[in-house]
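Worked example 2:
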Amino acid sequence: MPLDPSEIQSPLFLLLSLGMMLFGAGMGVLAVQMIKGRHPRSGPPIPPAVGRRELVGGLLLFTIANLAIGGLIVAVDLELDAGRLLALSAALMALASYPALRSSLAANRLDALGWVSRGTGRGLRTGIMAWFLLMPLFFGFNLFWVQVWVFFTGELPVQDVKDLISGGQEGSALVFLLAVLLIPFLEELVFRGILLNSLRPRLGAAWAIGLSSLVFAVLHGMAASGPIFVLALAMGAAMVLSGNLFVPFALHAMNNGVQLVLLSLASEL
């Protein structure tokens, strides 16, 4: 039975969301200490071999390809299923990262993007543990955001995922591979590995985290921008604290995987 938007506005939901966020903030302190303990850093971070040219080049490639694909879809009235749309998103992210990756490879500086050759497994485990510690904060803010959205729009910001699971087992496996593994990695490479690390020497860690998180959230649409901004702040902090791209990637992948499962279950109700 679908949830009535008016039910979300009850004081109980508000107290629950605020309580979860308060508890999650405390767990966030533990997450910071855990990341620092598992990934001690000595000396200042190495700036990536990425300048304005690579950033602008990646943005232009992303924009031109996005406009071309959008124009083609409109021109031929093309309908794409969820798997193909996610594959296109992955291709766009790969294009956006290409100039910076090429420059970093030429300078042998992939580690400056957080793409470390050693410590991958440790980074993945750290990101998973960080997600469990931050889970109350994420879920609490999600609930709070739903209440805010309903208050202003009268509608629930619910994503319809029936098309994500309508392609049978093979289609669902493709969606899972893209939405939980490939796209999160490419997005972390672009927004945390390249954008955040490029802004950090110029703006400082706090502004770099905030600005890269804002861009990341806006690109995901207004309905989900609040929770995604909070998630992006956590992933940015994880990148700065650890210097390991696989920490925010694991956090991102866990979040997408759990959200996909929960939304799929909700669509069956």
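Residues 5-44+119-267 form one domain. DSSP finds nine helices and no strands in the chain.
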